[in-house]
Give the backbone structure.
Amino acid sequence: MKPVSPTLTLLLLLIACSLLGWTGPVHAAKQGHKSKALKAGTVFRDCRSCPYMVVLPHGNFEMGSSEAEEGRGDDEGPIHVVHVATFALSKTEITRAQYAAFVKQTKYITDDKCWTLEDGKYEQRSQRDWRTPGFPQKDSHPAVCINWNDALAYAAWLSHKTGKKYRLPSEAEWEYAARGNTSSARYWGEDPSEAMHYANTADQSAQAHIQGASSWSVHQCSDGYAYTAPVGSFKANAFGLYDMLGNVMEWTGDSYHPDYQNASSDGNVWQGAAEKRVLRGGSWNNAPRNVRSAMRDPNNPSLRFSIFGIRLARQLP
């Protein structure tokens, strides 16, 4: 048998990539510069269907919450200083339209089961997924009913599509980004009733429109949304990131640890023996105690809820 020529090998590779729908790295015209030149605060995207990313500066911050913080969980301490290297984080949560592009191109299949809130009850229901989460959504709303494995698959696809390294943020990166150089319980301050300007949370709008929500502990304000809101509907934090609190909970790359004893100080993903992974940020149905920068929510990586979504990090350069 004759050896296959390098030219033929390259041709076969290009054909395979074409069939997979991948044409190599495609950079949006708005980027217009090399990654090495990206400075803190720069907003860019790597392709037309890619999420907009914000470059965050490197820095130190105190991770966790003090025992005096109202609503604090036992797993939020001890407070420890973490150094975070510069990286990029998606400006908003990943939208239905962005997730749909991934599903269409990869033919990705998920179970048709998701925990949804309907008829006043949260139950795992059939015929429920990111397309049909039990409440109306538009393409500009965050994708929901996403589990940890779905989030990894989306990040892997985006990495392959662009030639860049997309991934879930670490817990430390996420909290650093959410705080935006603040040390208060929320990036807008301590008062949960100010959420109506900054976050879509459980509030009087939810109580007015969701069956069973009359008994919820809610923010004493009304943001106009009972369920999810279009991403970017509220004020950004100091880093220019939207919906870091509220709207949907966001998966991180870390294994769950019951506290921060022996936690790393370098900001990287903290792996451990626990199967559970950590979500951050609270959601449209969360009470004030769960909509804080330090709040942690461990869950099974295979679990899909209509309050679970995605925000991605990207390595720089």
Q: What stands out?
A: Residues 148-162 form the longest helix (15 residues). Residues 251 and 281 are 9 Å apart (CA to CA).
